[in-house]
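Hi R.,

Here's the chain you asked about this morning:
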Amino acid sequence: MSQESQLPPTADGRLPEPGADSADLHREIVRLRDHNADLQERLHAHPAISLAQGVLMERYRLPAPEASFTLLREASQRFNIKLHTLADAVVRTPHRPDGPARPADRARTPPPPLPGLRTAGADRTHQGEVLSAALHRVLDITGAGMGNVQLAEGGRLRMVRHSGLDREFTSFFAFVDSPTTSCAQAAEHRRQVTVRDVATADVFDEGSRHVILRAGSRACHSVPLVNRAGVPIGMASSHHERPLPGFTKAQLQALEATGLMVGRWLSWHRHTVVLDALDHLHTTATADR
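And here is the predicted structure, written out as tokens:
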């Protein structure tokens, strides 16, 4: 086989000229990989948002999907909630004719304390800030340089924060609904899961294993973020460059405490800030009726 026939095509389908610079070829491969990652993320995210648009159209007799998307986007921006999170809440939260959850009908409580998190003295109502602080706390305890946080939405785990992980990893695991990952196992069994060596662990399918190893991770640990009933509503995971011997009892206890603390904060956020956003959305949709 000739050297020319072994070179991957460029974006317009043409083969590079013989002797093309290897750096240019590498940049083209990276660009194509990023483009594919964007498409995959949109493919996974689109159904949930489309479902919420359909619910809003039917609920408020809206004329077109664009009108329901505008409602979602405005409420998302006003209350600083990710569009996907708000869409999930629209579908998941029972609706009443006078609104999904009026503030007057709900007990107003301050956000739970977050001792040990770097955001403790800052805005404790901002989900992004709290989850970033939670990830840093988990990485500090485990001594890892890579990690991510996921939220349970629509029967799957959606990645919302990450650190030190490459684009291929974050795109491949943007949404997890397969049991063949440590985070899925931790969510299913409601306990921490340690993978001492990704290369040999039987928890992963080969596609997942390949992506994790390519990211430079040889071991990982997943911590459920649980509500007061012990149900995981999120997951924090650390990734390690070398195989792990395990963690000390003190480390595991600190990780469990972090999972409980952040899980309870997430539960508070869903029952206050997210419901406020849904009520605002309802008020806006019915204002002219």
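One quick note: Residues 78 and 191 are 35 Å apart (CA to CA).

Cheers,
M.
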